[in-house]
Amino acid sequence: MKTQYVFDIETVALSEEDVLALMPEFNPDEIKIGNRKPENAEAYIEQKRLEHKARFMERAALSALTGRVMALGIYNPNSEDKLIIVDDEPKLIETFFQWFATGLGELTQWIGFRIADFDVPFIMRRAWALNIPVPARALVKGRYLTSWFVDLAELWRASSRDPEMISLDRLARFLGVGSKANTGAAFAALLYENQEAAIEYLSNDLVLTWKIAERLGVIRPAEAEVANGPDLTEPAGVGRGDGTEEEAELEPAATFW
Questions:
Q1: Model-level pTM?
Q2: 22 partner at 20 to 30 Å CA-CA among 115, 122, 209, 244?
């Protein structure tokens, strides 16, 4: 019997200095000023310059050039091998590759949502940036993921060429298996403000992914029990010092469920 895991990553932007170093140059000559007076035109161009910067910063976490992996979650409710790693990018990337390599001889299947467009290429590109060896030929074949992976977003398209994208939250609601409490864009702030809540957020994404995989037939009911999710009331090693008080600074941590 093959082992199946769902996995998910959360990403955040690099420092503003690093992000702006890769921002495309703003070209004021491309701005149409119409019949504005010179002083008004100058203010209008400056406004567009600021909007250009804000748009780039807003999307920085979505590119491996300007973002980094902040958290990794791996989940199977029927196995004791369940993991979240937070804030240690090299460690979480190396851990994912180690789990993946171990599973190559055990018919392991990796399941995720939009992993073909986002999670897998993001992990690979960040690994290259960090000079971490990448098992590229086992991960991708040409333009596609290898057969070790199942992308639920691609399966949901059911060969349709309709470009409409569906979110994890929307699909989960449609299938009646739950919903998301927040968005990935808020993950970084949530992690520093309330680390337990951030880990619970990622845990919920993993549980939703597992339940969607069940509904789409990727995971057969005979192989999976209802995924109620792990107990995260006391996540070990996340924002804790002696286990009784929250630490002021975020410490890299691995949480085993």
A1: 0.80
A2: 115
Alpha carbons 249 and 82: distance in angstroms, whole number: 25
Determine the Cα–Cα distance for residues 151 and 95; give it in Å rounded to an integer: 20
Please tell me whether residue 136 adopts helix, strand or coil conformation: helix
H or E element, residue 67: strand 67-75
Largest pairwise CA distance in the chain: 73
Tell me which DSSP letter residue 68 carries.
E
111 φ/ψ angles, rounded to the nearest 5 degrees:
-120, 135
pLDDT tens digits for 222-257?
444 444 444 433 333 333 333 344 433 444 444 433
SS3 sequence, 209-252? HHHHHHHCCCCCHHHCCCCCCCCCCCCCCCCECCCCCECCCCCC
Q: What percent of the residues of the chain are helix, what percent strand, and what percent coil, each to the nearest 5? A: 45, 15, 40
